[in-house]
Amino acid sequence: MLQSYIPVLLVVAFVVANAILMLGLSHFLSSTRPTAVKLAPYESGMPVLGDARERFSVKFYLVAMLFIIFDVETVFMLPWAAAFHQVPEFRGPLLAEMLVFVVILGVGYVYIWKRGALQWD
Amino acid sequence: MTASAGSGTVAAAPSPSVAALTARFGPAIRRHEVSVGDTIVYVAPDRAHEVLAWLRDDPGQRFDYLTDVTAVEYRDRERPLEVVWQLRALGRGADLRVKVELDPGRPLEVDSVYDLWRGADWLEREVYDMFGVRFRGHPDLRRILMWETYREGHPLRKDFPLRGHFSRAEQTRQALAANPEAHYSIQELSIAAAYDELPGDMKERLSRGERGDVA
Amino acid sequence: MTEVSAVSPNWLTTRLDFLTNWARANSLWPMPFGTACCAIEFMATAASRFDLARFGMERMSFSPRQADVLICAGRLPFKLAPVIRKIWDQMPQPKWAISMGACASSGGIFDTYTMVQGIDTIIPVDVYVPGCPPRPEGLMYGIMLLQKKIKGESFRDADLRQEHLVGPDGLFLPAERIDEVSEPFGNSVQQTRSA
Amino acid sequence: MSTRTLEVSLATPGLDPSGRPVAVPLGVPLPEYHVPQDDLGGEHMLINIGPQHPATHGVLRLVIELDGETVVRVVPHIGYLHSGFEKLGEYRHYNQIIPLTDRTDYLSPMANNVGFALAAEKLMGIEVTERCQVLRVIACEISRIISHLVWLGTTGIDLGAFTPFLWCFYQRERLYNLQEAWTGARLTTSMTRVGGLMADIPDGFETGLREFCRTFPKTLDEVDAMFTRNAIWCGRTQGVGVISAAEAVNYSLSGPMLRASGVDYDVRKDRPYLGYQSYDFDVPIGEHGDIYDRYRCRLEEMYQSVRILDQALDRLARLKGAPINVDDPRTILPPKHRAMSDMEAMIFHFKQVMEGVRAPVGEAYLGIENPKGELGYYLVSDGTAKPVRWRIRPPSFINLACLPKLCEGVLLSDVIAINASVDIVMGEIDR
Prior knowledge:
The complex is a heterotetramer of chains A (121), B (215), C (195) and D (431). Chain A has 121 residues and is an all-alpha fold. Chain A has a single domain, classed as NADH:ubiquinone/plastoquinone oxidoreductase, chain 3 (Methane Monooxygenase Hydroxylase, Chain G, domain 1). Chain A has four helices and no strands. In chain A, helix 3 runs antiparallel to helix 4 (91-115). By secondary structure, chain B is of the alpha/beta class. Chain B has a domain at 16-145: NADH:ubiquinone oxidoreductase Nqo5 subunit (Beta Polymerase, domain 2, 2-Layer Sandwich), CATH 3.30.460.80. Helices cover 27% and strands 21% of the residues of chain B. Chain B has helices at 16-25, 48-57, 120-131, 168-177, 186-193, 200-207, and strands spanning 29-35, 38-43, 65-72, 81-89, 94-102, 109-111, 134-136. The longest helix of chain B is centred in the middle third of the chain and has 12 residues, at 120-131. The model of chain D is unreliable at 1-14 and 23-40 (pLDDT under 50). In chain D, strand 6 (362-370) and strand 7 form a beta hairpin. The two termini of chain D are 38 Å apart. Chain D is globular and about 80 Å long. Chain D has two domains: 1-30, no CATH class; 93-430, Cytochrome-c3 Hydrogenase, chain B (Orthogonal Bundle), CATH 1.10.645.10. Chains in contact: A-B, A-C, A-D, B-C, B-D, C-D. The A-C interface holds A 28-33, 35, 37-38, 40, 42, 44-47 and C 3-4, 16, 20, 63-65, 82-84, 86-87, 89-94, 155, 161-163, 165.
């Protein structure tokens, strides 16, 4: 039973060795010389005024959240589409199930559309 | 060994604008001459802005294109420093050079033509940076080519040596040590600021009003 | 953890030197500090005819964080001196500098009030490429010289990768050294009579 | 949120009693429509697209005040390449200034040399031979194509299209071969002299140029096919960075920037020099004054330049063997065999090298149609061999001055596109 896991273990071992080798060598060989100027933020060679953490308008955050919701929706579709071909006898219920999922998210989409969250300025 | 064919002031006819100008302004137009085909009009410094506004707006003249604003300083001391406006009428295709002689006694000042031509904004800032001629009424007169706290004076003046007053080491030190507000105008400092994010040392320099003498 | 450079030269360190130098020399990511005419010649060198990709250098890094070699292509006025100084300080070790063109190397024809007479008074320079502007082949010869220099480096000399910052007196070189280096030489001495 | 006032002049460091720097006006009044709402609005952010940046075409520095993604105001800072050209010119003879001219606008060096030579000849009242005029026209048009090719390539990169950069630079290398064969240098040509040229064209030059004129439009057609009806290109450039004709004249713009706004003004047509009135070419005029029209104007100008080059080459064939220098030994160096043979030519040769050409007292301004706009040289002479004042009328400097006006209220990525469309070269802006 153990035999079938040898290739997986080999790959994992190779990956771990590779990572350790690369990180170790570069850490061990690199000549890090941190100085105050080097750690200062780079702004095209100019002295920096103020810091980058300015107060931003909230609409950027809103758009980010909406993107995540609909992106996760498509992520869920991927395994569904993969499984769809392998079990031909269940095609009917699988389609119905995905329809429900999409409709629920469609309601959410129409809601934010009417609320005007997609209006930019 | 003068170039044989050329002779300085060719006796070409001055442009018709000269007659119109002398008719309109009389004593303000000091004199005019023609050099190699270009007409030059010398105007009294305090009425220069008025003459230029008339030249731009008068339907007969319509000098609507300001080609260049510059200044000339001669090698012999008694000739005064001149500010030169190079005008062009796009419709009529005529050129005119208006000059103003600033007497060396009083501080070098002349009226800005920024309200007549927007293009004069940077040209006048460069003349201020290079010659030290202040333009009254210019919205934002500060150095444009050298950094703002440049202390060696105005480079294109004849008394300014080619390599600068200070030694190369001093010039390097001043350049490397130019503190941050030398690279930012007051306008940008007030934006970045909300005033508390500025680094501490710059804030107290600014509050002492010591922004480096802009002269 | 003792620095590798403290270890005495043996078979292992020389192989290590060879490996790292070979990797560094053949994948130099240039920081094109292009100011004037030499920048146009530098673009022509990077374009399709005199291809820089043959040296593994087609990846221009415009931020100092990933740059290996700072190529100052063009003249450097005093207003730009603090910029090149800050960019050089912000580049991680190991880093090298190529001064491309006569104006960057010695002020060139601009012996004037506003021109740095050679960027080596501001930052340490490894290779000077003469020419105004240097032909693309000239710049590539400079790059090959730099590669030869990198291949000759070793971990053992400890002061190779040190950071030489601007001193307390605000200068990178001592003041008299800068004055001596910036003195007009050759033809430039007679050409400053105004009339 | 500090409000902007228009009265305070900046001469004295503007600090109000509480020690805060009082915001002082800038060339551009804050646009009224942009009233920052306090409920959702965040603070304005100040970023530097600084001297060391791939998109600034040289060492230009743009300080941008951002409200989220939209630009409230752009403040260009220049002077990072100020090399004291005009000061250096006052210490040089007229023929020694010519090497300085091709280092100002290093994208079209031959056009600068021709412009300075024409201004000096106008000051000294010299008329050059016809073959020299035709050769100078060829030099100007080659410089125009080279400058527009660099502009097209780098603007393509700014907006994300890399391949036209390689096409354009390959064609430019072909022109560089011709330029190097004629003048000996790829970039710093210094080819003209007051009263003539440094050297006549080598033998293979005319066939090489004919070959170039025949095959170059094919590359232009490819770039045209790639950009002109490209949805991304049109989306990024149409209606962006618009300036009307009246404002363009008021801002003293020149060259493709002016003609893209619909002002029909080209120095080659309105103030012909070098016999341009006898060439048959037309000048592209835009209507909307946005980036797309500037692109169309410059692209069309390259087609017209090829037309001019063809006509100039036909004339050159007719003027085989004609002299290129004015035959006055006082102005231009006599040919070597004469300088070595008769005494007078040798004396003139010696005096010219030691003292340079002495110009009469007076002043002259002459503008030529440079690829960037109207490049003018204003020479003031007091009778000695070194000018009192050598003023360059820099087209890119004045065109760039209207950048704050063009960039009000656009998005940050449009600022890069507008800056690329102004076609600036820092050597000429900072002089």
